Structures are given as C-alpha cells and as structure tokens.
Amino acid sequence: MTALPDTLGGAARALASGELSSRDLVSSCLARIEAGQHLNAFVSIDAERALEAAAAADNRPAADRGPLNGLPIAVKDIFCQTGVRTTAGSRMLEHWRAPYDATVIERLAAAGAVLLGKTNMDEFAMGSSGENSYFGATRNPWNENHVPGGSSSGSAAAVAAGMVPAALGTDTGGSIRQPAAFCGLTGLKPTYGRVSRWGMIAFASSLDQAGPMAWDAADLALLLNVMAGVDHRDSTSVDEIVPDYTAGLTASVRGLRIGLPGDLLGADVNAEVRAAVDASRKVFESLGASIVPVSLPTALAGVPAYYVLAPAEASANLARFDGVRFGHRCADPQSLEDLYLRSRSEGFGAEVKRRILTGTYALSVGYYDAYYLQAQKIRRLIRDEFLAAFRNVDAILAPTTPSPAFALGEKTDDPVAMYLQDVFTIPANLAGIPALSMPAGMTDGLPLGVQLLGPHFGEGKLLQLAYAFQQATDHHLRRPGSAAA
Amino acid sequence: MSQWETVIGLEVHVQLATASKIFSGAANRFGAEPNRQASAVDLGLPGVLPVLNEAVVRMAIRFGLAVDAEIAGTTQFARKNYFYPDLPKGYQISQLDHPIVGRGHLDIIVPGNDGDTVKTIGITRAHLEEDAGKSIHDQVPGLTAVDLNRAGTPLLEIVSEPDLRSAAEAVAYLRELHAIIRDLGISDGNMNEGSMRCDANVSIRPRGESKLGTRTEIKNLNSFRFLEKAIEFEVERQQEILESGGRIRQETRLYDAERNETRSMRSKEEAEDYRYFPDPDLLPVTITPAQIEAVRAEMPELPRARRERFMKQYGLSGYDSRMVASDHATAAYFEACVAVAGDAKLTANWVMGELASVLNREEKDIDTAPVAPAALGRLISRIQDDTISSKIAKTVFEIMVTDGGEADAIIEARGLRQMSDSGELERLVDSVIADNPDQVAQYRAGKTKLLGYFVGQIMKATGGKANPGQLNELLRARLDGGS
Questions:
Q1: Which of A386, A460, B125, B174 could disulfide-link A431, Cβ–Cβ 3.0 to 4.6 Å?
Q2: B49 at interface of A, judged by CB pairs closer than 8 A
Q3: Residue A299: which H helix or E strand, with range?
C-alpha cells in the first residue's frame, strides 16, 4: 500500500497541492477499514455515501470549501446521524436510525468533512476497555491481544490502524483520553459546554463532552475549530468566543507555568508511566516552561464520586429505552411490566445494568443524601481545588492512565479494578475543565500517554503546549508495527 | 354543627397558554391529530435536549405577583423519575427544591347565608413542569394507545396550604384561581380540555383538634362540580370510618363522576419513589429584580381590584360586583354594556339574569354571546326611557337571540312600543271600569287585590304594551277616586 498521509494536516496539504483527491483518500481509508475488520473498530461503514461526499468535495469550487473539505473522519456511534444507524454500542439500538443529525455532525459536514462511518464503543459509553460493546470488543492495533481503551474504543483503534486520520469520541470520565493514551494518539476532552451535546446520546449529562482524537495537537486544533461553539439546542453549551486554535498553536511556551500534582503521582502508578511523566516534565522545562508543585488533595476521591454521579444521571437518561417508542422491544409482551422488564433485560448489557442499578440506588429515598449529595460535595471540592491551582499555573501535567493498555479480558471480572483505570481522567470531568492526552513514551510495544489539564476554556493553551512538546519529541510519530515502535 | 372539621388543600395544575411547548419548539395547541404535535424532544428520542421556553418564566412570575408571592432569585428544574408509556423520557421535568414561586396568599369570597365572607388562603408554592402525553385505553381493542401531543405542554402547579374548611371554600378558591389565571392571560382555564385540573388533599379532625388527620388525595378533578361532589363524598366516607372506630388509610383516590364516589388507587406504601435530582440538562435559571419589575409593569387588573372598582365606580352591591366582576370576560361584557345602557344595577341584573340563562341554555361562553354588549345596552336603555316595559324587553331579547337584529328595529317592526299616551290609556281604563261593574264594586268594598285583574284586562287588550307604571296610576286614581 502506498504511503498516503495519515494525519489530517498531511491529507489537507496533499489535497491542496492537487497531489491527491478526496476520492483517493477515502478509497484508501475504506480499503484499510476493510483490511482491518478483525480489529472491530467500526459498527457501521458508510462507504457509498462517503464516496459521494468525497466526489462532491473534489468538485466543490474553492470558494465554497470548508476547513475540512474532503478530509475523511470517523465518528463514535454515539452521535445521531441520519442515513445510518446509531447504536451506542447497544443491542437496545441495534436497528435504530436517528431522524436528525447531531450538531457536531452538522458542523463537520458543513466544513466539508467526509464521514466514513460509526465507530465501535463500550455500550452507552460505559466502559474503559472497549469490551462492553454489543458488537464485540475492539482490539488495540499496537497489540491485538490488548484493549484499545474505552469507551471511544473504535475511534482510537481506527485512527491508530490508519483507517482514518482522525475521529470523534466522547469523554465522560476519560473515554477520549484513556483510549488515546492506549493507542498512541493525542485526544482532547474540551471544557464542559465548549461543544454542543445535541444529538449525542447521553450517558451522564453533566459530564459528557465530545472531542477530537488524532495523531497530533495540530489536527486536534483543526477539528476543535469546527466543533466548538454555542448551540441554542443545548442549554449547557456556553457562549464563549472560539479562538482560532490552529493560529494559537505556535505561540511560545517559554515562561508558562506547569503544575505537577504530587497528590496524583503518589497514587498507584506504574513505573513506566511515572517515568513518562518525568521525561515530559523535562521536555517542558527545556522549552522554557517552569514546573511548580500544585495540590489537589481531593482529586483521588473523584472515582467514588464519579461512580455515584454518573450512574445516577445514567439511570434517568436510560429510562427512555422502555420498548414503547423506539429501540429493542421484547417479543410478545404479556403486560406493561413484562414489556419493560424483558425489553430492558434483553436490550442492555451487564455493565449498563450495573450502572442503572447503582444510580437508581444512589437516588433513592434514604440514600440520596449519603451518596448523591455527598458525591456532589466532593465534586465541588475538586472543582474548587482546580480553580485554586489554576490561579498559579497555566496547566497541570499528570498521567493519563495508571498503566499501559492491559490485555483483553484481564479486568472484565473486576469492575472496581476497571473503574480505577479512570482515576487520573475523572477529575477533569468532575471539574468541567479541558484535558488533553498525548503520547509520551513506549513500554513493551505499547504507547504511554501523559495528560495536560487546563482551566475552563483553556483548550488553546493545552494545544499550544502539546504542539510545542510534539515539535520537540517524536512520540506522536510512532505507528503500530513500524520499526520506530 | 358537625363534631368534625374538614381540612382541604388543593394542588391545581394550570396549562400555560404559550405558543410552543415548555422545552421544545413544537406547537402548544389542543386537539390536533394524535402525535402530530410532538417533536423529537417531546418524543424523548436519544440525543435530544430540553431548552426552556422563556415565556413560561414570565407567566409564572405573573402568577406569583398576582398572589403576592416571593419570586425565586434562582429556580431549578429537577427530574421526577417513573415509568409510564405516556411519559416519553421515563422522567418528568419538574421542580422540587427551588420552585419559581414561593409563599403567597389569595383572598377568596365564601358565599354564606349571612352574606359573603372574605377568607385568606395560603399558597405554599407554584412550580413549573411539563405535562405528560395521554394513554388512551378505549380506541384500540386490547391495547393502549399513546398520544404525545400533550407531552411537554407547560404546566404551573399551584399548591395551597391546608386552609380550606369545606367543599364550598375549595370551590370558591378554585374559582378565584380560575378568574386570576384568565385575567393574567396565562391560561384559557378550560377545564373540559384539561387546561386546569385539580387534586384535593382531604382530611377531617375533631373540631378543636389542632393536629391534622390522615389525608387522602383525590386525583384529577376537572370541574368545579366534581371538586365539590368529590370532597363531599370523601368527607362523608371519612366520617363514617372514624365514627365506626376505623382508621383512615393514607392513599390516593380517584373520583368516579358517574357513580359519584371516590375509589382507592394506591396506598402510601405503594407510592413510588420518584428519585428527584436536579436536571443536568437545564442550568439553574436566575431571575433578576429588573425582570420581575418588567412583569409587574404589565400586570392587568385582577378580580379583587375589579370587584372593588365596580362597587365604587358603578355603585354595585358586593353581591352584584362578585357576580359580574370576578370573571374578566363577564366584566368586559358588563362594562361595554353599561357604557350604552347607563343604569348599572339594571345592566347587572340583565347580565346575571336573562343573558346568563340564555348562555346556559345555548351552552355558550360570554365572549361568544349571541347578543353583543352594546346591542343589549341599547335594549336596556329602551326600558329606561319607557319605550318598552321590562316584560316586553324580555320578548325583544329572545328575538335578538334567535333572529338577531337591533332592539329598536324589532320594537318598531312588531309594534311593541309601550303605550304611554295618557289619552289612549284613559279611554281603555274607562271602558274596563264600565265593562266590569261587579269587580269595581268588590274593589271599592276593600278587595284591592283586584287591581291586578284590571291591569291584566288592559294588558290583554294592548298586547302587553301599556306602560305598567302609568296604567297603575290611572287605574288607582279612577278606582280609589270614586264615581
């Protein structure tokens, strides 16, 4: 196979120079998707419409071309899109077709992007390994016996395997950043409210946020420029100016202050991960940034707080899947209760049921104060600690995950071990702040990631830091199966 | 006086008359084809989000100001979770901890044998929420159909304190609320179409006892009459239980209008745990003093102020002003009518009497009355200027109702003008006296009641057109005056 550009930036340059057409790019992507079917990265492949969109992009007059004209992109199967099913990785929605497009889908299409299909995911975005999909587990292109991370498992695997230069994911407790770390990608969870949630199937409404996944920070900037912005259909989206993230990439990081949270690094972190954080710190120092200690004493309480709040919201969000109006309905219901019971028992997988039960319990009379309210207090403390920290620093450097990608099946019997995967990613969701994961090393042929966290609407600075880091390092240039790994 | 005291609190659901629904852009109208007025948001499709319709906030503030209530500085929506086929999301967006309208009060007029009394009823709160759809059990045999047109209709739930002491007080409270929401223009208050529905919490206790008895909640009462009947039945039922040594079970009951009884729906133990929590899709809403003042500046005249004005401006009695000023449509009709007619008391009598009975008979609202207020005013003015008698006026009014037309034209065309020419009347009186010598003798012997007989004879001869006052005077003069 000829070496086509595998980044958005590279592809955009090839299109601009006329070296390649969008049809060339899309055909090549479709061929790689075909060749990589065993990775199980896609739930639906939208080949025919993608080729039409590519042709349309090629024929579009230069003046009408958006910033993503002709560029192939895949989206997590949690975004509603007309003309293709939207499953959220669940049997419940196996055959469901949305009658409308999510705002991010509209924005990508309006910018000229070519949407290749819907990527696999943990059911309703509940999972940290990609193993909770009704459509089967996704494999990690770096080592196919390992998980790609979750819940945006298919998006991460698709980019890492070179099927698409970039993909969209969603991040409720780490679902963009953790798979990005496991698959050697750069991934961004924007500030809560930066990107519209309209048309994104809800898991935990106060935490869910869509974001881009790609090889490098420059590609993330390109996508975020298109995705970000207020949307009157989402009351929680924020009317805050969207800067040109691409233009902001090249500003110097000299003099920026980066916080290092001792509280987090004291946690149970794999030695290689710790070494990657340490090496990254040195890179930033060499770029002229200063490193200062910050205190986030409550951040580690994020996991229990999150596993109360997210399931509580999910228990209500998933109540609409009752077999009455859409989605899976059991055969021959005998009564209303029978319809509810069997439709939901058959339609949802084990992890989804576990969280619905947990959330229902946490909201019940007599438990609400002890669980839900207590968790909200922790959430507020974590947010306050971040706000205090960002009075002194521009960003915080932390691990993304406690370890590199684990083996398929390794943690499926131990939900708590699985939940602890999210210990470093959850605090950003609870605080509503942006956070980015980028490749920072390798161990045993598997990538390692580090995380940069910023203040609300500080995506620009995170991208700027990551871009400077990637100008100085080559972690983001490594590809699965290549000698460089 | 019964040894029991009745204690009632009402929860009233008012559908707000907005152009679109509370959280979606779908039209908010009654009576469309099933499921034609339900958008993706109303259907609760995956991925949709609610956006608050600002109009409902202003309407709720309007109501709050009308009952002198505290308006929340910050109000929040919560999810109330339960499964039902006509509840698309599996939760209703409502309010729990931070309702938009806090404590207020409302004066009601309780009619009694010794005249009306005014009583102040506490309002606990009023909050915003979305209505559910409708489950229809009798359209498809063996199945339940779901119509989601109503899903997402904005509701204001108004909760009273347990300050009401009888079915009559409960009805008076509901009537006053009804009048207020119509005056405020926040709802049409049409109870047949469910624009206003009511749940009643009813308990009884021995007179003098300060502790509340165990209550039952009667759901979904959709007329003043049903409210009254349901409470009366329920009070009697509770009395019978307590007097025979039983205990009241806290439960929800349904009123069956056909059988005039309440029936148990579910007990407290079976009550659902709604697992309320703040809706993360809707941020808390801040209401500024400036917003409240802007609404205050546009407040219309409310029933109580209007009743007081009618008494002062038109010299109406308390009773008359309650009858014509409470409802804004009736008041508007009265004012348009009296502007032409001149005599307020006479106009009030016509509006409450003839007009009301025609509306009742024709099952019409006053805003669609078959006789326009100015036309009725011109008719009334013909009574005052002695063109016709009150009795003839009723005939003319009936013709106006059935055939239409103006009073003057009808009077002329049918020759109904009252005979006020004294020469003509004197001749008639003379001939009646001449024709009935026996009755004249009896009258003069003291049987003065016979005056009516003579009046009747002359009315018969004139087809009712004789001016009754003038006629009485002439007859008396001739009969009492001798010869």
A1: A386
A2: yes
A3: none
Residue B80 C-alpha, separation from nearest chain A C-alpha, in angstroms: 9
**B145 vs A: CB within 8 A:** no
From A22, A28, A151, A196, the catalytic residue: A151
Would you list the domain boundaries of chain B?
4-295, 303-413, 422-480
Which residues of chain B make contact with A363, given a CB cutoff of 8 A?
81, 275-277
The ipTM value here is: 0.96
Asked if B79's CB is within 8 angstroms of A200's CB, the reply is no
The yes-or-no answer on residue A44 being catalytic is no
Please write the tens of the pLDDT for every residue from A3-35. 689 999 999 999 999 999 999 999 999 999 999
CATH of B422-480, one of 3.50.50.60, 1.10.10.10, 3.90.550.10, 1.10.10.410: 1.10.10.410
Of B442, B440, B441, residue with least CA distance to B475: B440
Q: Answer for the pair A393, A289: CB distance below 8 angstroms, yes or no.
A: no
At A450-474, the pLDDT tens digits run 999 999 999 999 999 999 999 999 9
The chain B residue lying nearest A88, using CA atoms, is B46
Paired with A210 in beta bridges are A170
CA A346, CA A315: separation in Å to the nearest integer? 17
B133 to chain A, any CB pair closer than 8 A? The answer is no
E strands, B21-116, are 74-75, 78-81, 91-94, 104-110
B154 to chain A, any CB pair closer than 8 A? The answer is no
Best of A208, A324, A332 to substitute, by most chain B Cβ atoms within 10 angstroms, is: A324
Q: Which amino acid is at B140?
A: V
Is A189 catalytic? The answer is no
* φ, ψ (nearest 5 deg) of residue B467: -70, 110
